[in-house]
Amino acid sequence: MKKQSLILCLLLIAVGVCSVAFAGHTFLDWPSNGNYTSGVGPAKIVAVDAIGSALTNGTVILSRIPSDNSSTNAFSFGTLTCSSGAVQQAITNTVWVFTDDTIQRTGTATNARVRVVLEK
Predict the structure, then answer these.
(1) pTM for this one?
(2) pLDDT band per the 50, 70, 90 thresholds, residue 8
(3) I need a labelling partner for 7 at 20 to 30 A (CA). Which of 23, 37, 59, 97 fits?
(4) What are the structural domains, with CATH classification, of the chain?
């Protein structure tokens, strides 16, 4: 009986640790070029994934427009270029988005599906 209780306790601890580890990540899904409100934040961009670009070397550019619409600034990771119609890029420099930010998606990969992975 003690072994079963110990196994059950360890299993519950493992589930709890996994839940905490995955609770801080989310993603934003942008199917086409345009302006999107992030709706989450503050959160750090940790990766960008684009698939399905009809242009083999299509580009994806993401910019922030603050809530007062005072400026448009490209994120510091710059232009992402697809290879064979896709790009998966880990973002190693610190880039933040906030709840009321508008994110502008531009570039030549207009038909690609772009997902931005965020960490809270």
Answers:
(1) 0.76
(2) very low
(3) 23
(4) 25-119 (2.60.120.230)
